Every structure is written in C-alpha cells, then in structure tokens.
Amino acid sequence: MRQVYVIHENNEWVEPLRAALRERDVPFEEWFLDTGVLDLSTAPPDGVFYNRMSASSHTRGHRYAPEHAAAVLAWLERHGRRVLNGGRALQLEVSKVAQYAALEACGIRTPRTLAVVGRPALVEAAGGFPPPFITKHNRAGKGLGVRLFHDAPALARYVEGDEFEPSVDGITLLQEYIEAPEPFITRVEFVGGQFLYAVRVDTSQGFELCPAEACRVDDDSCPAGANTGSLFRILDDVDHPLVQPYERVLADNAIHIAGIEFIVDRKGVAYTYDINTNTNYNAEAEQAAGRSGMGAIADYLARELRMGP
User: Are the beta carbons of 292 and 141 closer than 8 angstroms?
Assistant: First the structure.
C-alpha cells in the first residue's frame, strides 16, 4: 500500500502532524534518520516522502542527521519518488548563505552579511563592519549563535572568550543589525508552495527568542505547542509585496512547505533573513485564529498521495 513517509529527527515536533494525519486516516510511516544503513542497491518503497530534517539536529545529539537525510533524499530522487522538500530544500535548510543566494536570485533584499571562518578572521572582519551588527550560525535553527554587538571590541571580547560558540559547519555570519520601529518580525507560512497565513511575532524578549516557535536557544527541544501564544498573532489577510516573490523562491528551489521571515526597518524597507523548511506552528495562536498549519500539511500530503506515482 502506498503511504506517506515522514523523514525527521525530532519526535516532539512531529506529534502535531501525527495527530493531523491520523484524524484524516492518511496512512503514514516515520523514518527517524539519526544513524542507520542505506543500501544503494535497493529501490525505495512507493509513496510520498516528506522531509522534515532540521538544521538544529546537532543540538539534540543527532550530529550527522542532515548528512544522512541528504543521502536518503538523493536515493529517493534517483528512483523518481515523489519527494516534498527534497535535496535542494535540505541544502537551504542547513545553510543561510545558500538561503540568501536563493532569495537574492529572485530580487529579494537580505541583510548585508559576511560569511566568516575562523576566530581571527571574525574579529578582523568586525573591525571594518559598520556597527551595530549581529552574529549568527550559518547552520542554525533555534536562534543559534545570535548575538548583538554595538562595536568591534565587544565582539572581539566575545570571540576570544570562553562563551564563543562556533557554528557546527564552521561558518559564522556577521550581519548588519536591522532595527525595526516596533519589536516584531513577520513569518509567512506556505504549504504546497502557496501562501497559508502570516504570523506577527513579538521579539521583545530578545535574541534568544526563536521567532517561529518561541523557544530558548539553550532548550534541548523546541515544542511547537509551547505556552507562548501571546507572542504570536496570525494574520490571514496579508497583501504584502513579498508573498509572490517568496512563492517564486519556493518554486525555483523545489520547496513545498516552509516559513519565511522578514523584518521591516525604520524606513519601511523589508529584509528577509530566514527560510525554514522544517516549519512548526504555535498551537495557541492557531487556536485563537481557528487555523491549523499541520492540518493544512496533512491535507496536502493526502492530496499528493491520491495523485499516485
């Protein structure tokens, strides 16, 4: 029997999707990709494969889960299986540099960013970068490595001290700080490559806030149902000029399900800074708005399954 295969490495994040699929009687199986063996001489089963691999997997002890997933996705795609958020989507999930390149290819403005390898190079780069600026990890998720600095000496003290945490891929981003007139960002959700809804996210709690799920950087996991609904407000009617360009980015990069985040500065200029292909939704905000992101994904997976090979 054909079924949906959900590829992931975080049981908590998949629980709302499990419930939505069961409510709709959609047959599914989970592939938890941490360790394992992939026999390239065999053919994969028939079905629809939905990749939910996360850039932050290493924070849960699954250091090579994205690499494992990349191998599995290549195998699936080589055999012509229907893969949602396949190999190209995973490339963008684990690299903000790749995300910015894809965004800029569609004419979407991103913050000025330097990709830096090595502590001495980071200190040197900051010396010639207009403050204030932030650092963040290239392979991120959960707000990893996000710090605000008002001058280069402050960054140097951090980088040369014991608190410095390098990105798991060795690339630290030095990025201009976009100051918004109000402390919020907007996250635009897409399912099936189409606009679902937007979320206004209150960022007044600071840089340790993960805008999509309101979880702390030092959390072992980031449950989407956290009691933080007051920080989120779903916006159904969004007539923003970025929505159609975002849909183009998704189509050009074979991304089917994602959340894309932007911030607007004091001059009204929008800067896009994140594509999250392992999107989660806030339960309280959805309940208040009568919406269900995971329900929309489950419906989409069911339609894909009915379409056949």
Answer: no
**C-alpha distances out from residue 92 to 255, 262, 274, Å:** 9, 16, 10
The mean predicted confidence, pLDDT, of the chain is 90
- Residue ranges of the chain with pLDDT lower than 50? 207-229
* The total number of residues written for the chain in this structure: 309
pLDDT of residue 239: 74
**Strands of the 232-235 sheet, one edge to the other:** 232-235, 194-202, 184-191, 257-264, 270-276
How is residue 144 written in tokens? 């990893």
Long-range contact pairs involving 74-82 (C-beta distance under 8 Å, separation at least 24): 75/38, 75/40, 75/44, 76/44, 76/49, 79/43, 79/44, 81/44, 81/46, 81/47, 81/49, 82/47, 82/48, 82/49, 82/304, 82/309
The whole-number pLDDT of residue 238 equals 73
SS3 195: strand
Interatomic CA distance for residues 122 and 287, integer angstroms? 44
In the chain the domains, ranked by start, together with CATH numbers, are 3-92 (3.40.50.20), 94-109+180-291 (3.30.470.20), 113-176 (3.30.1490)
**pLDDT score at 220:** 34
Q: For residues 289 and 291, what is the distance between their CA atoms, to the nearest angstrom?
A: 5
Q: Which residues make Cβ contacts (< 8 Å) with residue 10, sequence separation at least 6? A: 52, 54, 57, 60, 221
Q: Are strands 133-137 and 147-149 parallel, antiparallel or unpaired?
A: antiparallel
